[in-house]
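Quick check before the chapter quiz. The format below is the same one you will see on the exam, so make sure you can read both the input and the output lines.
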Amino acid sequence: MFRTPILRCIKQLHLLENTIKTTVVHTSSFQLQTTSLYKHGEKPELTENKPSNSEHNFLVKLKSDPDTFGTQQQEDTLVEDDVKEEKYFTEKPLRSQKLSTKRYADIIKDLINKRKIKEAIDVVEVRMLKEDRVKPENYIYNLLLGACGRVGYTKKAFMLYNDMKKRGLKITAGTYTALFNACANSPWPLTDGLNRATKLREIMIEKGYQPNDTNYNVMIKAFGRCGDLPMAFSLVDEMISKKIRLRDDTINFLLQSCISDKEVGFRHALLVWRKLVDKNIKPSIYTFNLLLRCVRDCNLGDVETTKDVIDTICKHRKMIEAPNIKQLEEGNTRIPPPPFQDIQTTESTSSNQSQTVQVQNSPVSTVNSRPNLLAKIPHLGNIISLTEVKEPEHRLLLLGGCRGFLEEIENRGCSPDIKTFTQLLDCIPDTVAAEQELLIAMRKFNIKPDLDFFNMLIKKRNMRSDNNAAKDVLKLIKKNGYRPDLITYGVLAIGCKTEDDCVQLVSEMKDACYTLNTEILGAMLYQACYQMNITYVMYIMDLCSTENVPQ
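Here is the expected output.
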């Protein structure tokens, strides 16, 4: 419709060389006006028509129409999404505002090191995507996934993983490692963590992804901590079938899996250790510390099945006739322990034999009468009754006792640390002699006890009502250059059996500028009630009032 007036105008411009005034009015409120002199070749100006007065009056009349009901707002309402969309197209970020991937990664790493996980996530979700409009790479996402996995933000980690898939980013080995680590550290490992780990494992199989050794280790960690020990052991069998070399990291994650099973974890740990010996894997001190955790926290489980397991470990001794003691000491004669899949078959088969394991006298027992299932040639000594193996000190005895365990650490080329001796303190017998032997061993290995070790020693002695020996630990604390802290006075309060002991401890706390709290007064009140000393009870109640401690 525009072409005919415009062509007519151009034709007249070619014919006329003086002045022209042409007006072309269109029904769509556009008007072509030429109000001045145009020379040859000049184009007219296109302007927009304004509504006339009659149109304005019509609109006013329309607003006051009697058929219009209510107080409906006449102005156009702005939708929030429309405002955001308009802002997105109008306010574009400057090119100088956008950073490189390395600089974004450095910002995220710095926040992660400061444990500001939420702020690190906001760098991607707010700054990069909304403000700077930069597409994150999978490296950026892997950084966030690793941080979420370490602190147990399982749900957020999988949300970021789904965002990666929506953006078409490549899923790498590091991505799977971070996700399984998030499952392992989940606040709900037996439910949410296990379900997510199982589904992620199925996704890897569907995609045909071949895990590397790091992926296998973190999968063992995830399924072990989430309570699925059969899956953890089957993953080790899968590593062996694929000829992936087992390292001490794999053994450590298996021991973590054993710790999660409080009923039969110690029995699993014995078989895991035999696999370590069979594969000639050199353990680290971290391996020995995990083994001590199993000794302290886990039981043997069913006695008959445990007997079968121990017989399996020591079965090579039955095949030795007229053995050479020197060869046994050097460990030249060895029968390989069972594979990992035999762990589950051994668990399901139990015989009707007696609950007492009796080992006949043999040259091995002449070498060392103490039981030691950690040695290259494991042995049980003379006689051991498995029905009595219920306490940590009994389980430690199966591993050679405190002395034998430390000798095994030394023979494997490792050096114990303070954590080793702290865990041994929970596993040795409740006697002063055993504790003195442990302190002597610490001096032998040049390990200085810390304040936490002494606090545990005070608590251990007070729990067996050896209050005088507990007070003697204060001398060791001062001798090693430490100052008692609030926890020290808290464990000392366990031994305050009389009112005089309570008065003395309160005086020492005031001299050390410490104030009483609910836990310390609660420990004293327990002793007062146990001793049925009403005067002692009333004194503690008065202390609560004078010290403004909530009752």
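If your answer matched, good. The chain is about 60% helix and 5% strand.
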